[in-house]
Amino acid sequence: MRVFIHVGLTALCTSLLLGFNIAATSAAPSPATATSDTQPPSSAPSPQSTGTPPTGPTRTRVLTLSQMGNFGPMALRGESPNGTLNVGVRTDEVVTSARLKLDMAWSPSLIPSLSHIKVQLNGVDVATLPLDKDDAGKEVTRTIDLDPLLFTDYNQIKLQMVAHYTTDACEDPYHSSLWTDISPATSLTLTTSGVALPDNLALLPRPFFDRQDNRPLSLPFVLPPNAPLSTLRTAGVVASWFGELADYRHAHFSVLNTPPADSQAIVLAMPGAVPQGLSLPQINGPTVTVMANPASPPQSGRKLLVLAGRDEKELQTAAFALVLGHAGMTGSSDQIRSVDPGPVRRPYDAPKWAPIDRPVPFLDLVDDPQQLQVSGFNPPQIRVNLRVPPDLYAWARQSAPLDVHYRYTAPSTYNDSMLNVSINDQLVRSERLRPSHDGSEGFRLNVPLLTSTAVGASDEVPVPAFRVADNNQLQFQFHMDAQKAGLCASTAADVARAAIDPNSTIDFSGFVHFTAMPNLAYFATSGFPFTRMADLSDTAIVVPDAPDAADEAAVLTLLGNMGAWTGLPALRVEVVPAKDVASVGGRDLLVIGTGSAADLLAKWGKGLPLLISQGDTALRMREQRKESWTNWPADGDHRPRTPDGETVMSTSGPLGALIGFESPLEAGRSVVALAATSSGQLASVLDVLQDDRRPSPVYGDLTLVRGAQIDSLLLGKPYFVGEVPWYARIWIFVSNYPSLLAIAGILAGLAVALAVFWALSRLAVRRTGGS
């Protein structure tokens, strides 16, 4: 991909930002104070005390324990006394006050004079919390005012338990009395003030998206009134890029006709189609500009990212340049000379999907190899995220080989040191860690380290195919036994280390692409089948002939989800009105089923389980099929069912639905429709796709959303997508009928018996000299 950019304005000096950080870190921090939960918070320090000139209004947000990187309660134990809270601060904000509220409970057996919790912020001791005898054994709240000068863009709050239950020199660090639990109710309250960033494209994607902000991304798009669908498609390309950046945070997009009063926003403009309230210089070609938001107070620091062009083609060029070449942009405005989006992607080559044509090393699955290393006797799990195409079918094998190599601090004898290998919280293999070899204590450390005699091991673990979904997590849990033979025999030291080698691999090369559809579970977790082509070159989005702002916002949010699932902008998606759906009949279709698009669904409605039109809802019920929702199309009975009944009703409440079915325009193509009683209900359906608080409730071919109530049904006739070898198709067909398998086994046995009988007869004739 090539992007040529002409710098329109001279780059502003980014030393202003550096000056903010230097001033903030050079000031002498004051110690933090620990208070009870009834003490009022201290007043925020003045801008002069922080060394950073805040320019915008103050904002307060509360981070929970889970938002600071902990999956549940934080357990501090004698052999593992440390815990960490991770806190990010946006580039355009400076911390003016911070209060940590610790909800915790500790053992009644601890000696108060020898036990406490030490709190550190970015390596600086900020508080010591005594573990009193009177409060032991019950949940207690402690609050700590943290010095805002200690905060940077990425921060770590470390909690260390120093605890003793006896004054005996032979105290056992594994004793059950040594415990403190940090409750999930623990929170950090941050008060921040805005910092005015320069109008500099070199800061992109900030301030519109900041990686240190773990909140969901909410970003408005400002489009001209009655913008053509080509403009909506261009906005969708940009939305998919921001969705890719937001990733696990999720992204929500809205559509406005004027700049928002207190928010960053993306603006698309052409001559004669400039949003109201925005004044732009003459547009002389495709241009990307960052500027202050005129609808916000000057001191707020809110920005607009303006994409402009003299026509739709130039507007698209500006969008492509942004998503492909933003790393080369600088200054407040860049004029684009040309953009080459590159060739059409190949099927299943999404950057976030692991390839299945070769073994995949873990080095390709993690951002940093340091993620594969842990320390301590009971270290946290090593987690490796793994996305694969959801239509994998293992007809020739029942598992995916996981070739795992690992290193660890070896025990001196066989004990309970273990490595547990799991996928998606399901145990696959538990391996006992072998002791070091004789004489390995006296080894020589060689440089480079690749030639060292480190203690390690390897194992091939078969991962059952039925455990593999589209979005997976491989989990490796080390447990290092302390090897203590008795009291005073040895002193446990925190020297245990373990690591998974980055050259460990998992191999899906024996799988093929073949699955039964429709299956909304695939769409809800990976966007399949639309994400089969990462640039969405096989996808068209069908919208009403006259879409409103809610319809347009649904398109942008959907494309944001696609970018998060694939890791690539939707460069080649098509957006068409319902009246022109025949022009994209050869593609997979995403239908926004309101207005005239709802009429299109009604036209196709003979085979659909649900229709919503003009306030009426028609629900066609069929006998529920019994097959489990896996990627095994041989499971269950696929014979079509006849309708058991139909109900037509006028609903008084809100209703939204996801409907999956085979395209009536071309066999083998898929349609997923978002239908609702009104366009305003589309957002509730999209919220279901972004709800990570529980396993996805979306499956089958129909999902109904009625407020907090979500119901999924399996009603329609299945069809199959993908390809398998002809002999595999015979096996799939025969496996649906056990009687055929029995007959085939009998016939095969008879054939083998006849062949052996004939061969023995010929041998006997030769021995007797016969012909």
From TrEMBL:
Its main location: membrane. The chain crosses the membrane at residues 740-760. The keyword Transmembrane applies. Coiled coil: none annotated. It is found in: Cell inner membrane. Tightly associated with the cellulose synthase catalytic subunit. Pfam families: BcsB. The lineage of its organism: Bacteria, Pseudomonadati, Pseudomonadota, Betaproteobacteria, Burkholderiales. It comes from the Bacteria. It is a single-pass membrane protein. InterPro entries: Cell_synth_B, Cell_synthase_bac. Residues 1-27 form the signal peptide. One of its GO terms (biological process) is cellulose biosynthetic process. One of its GO terms (cellular component) is plasma membrane. Belongs to the AcsB/BcsB family. This is Cyclic di-GMP-binding protein.
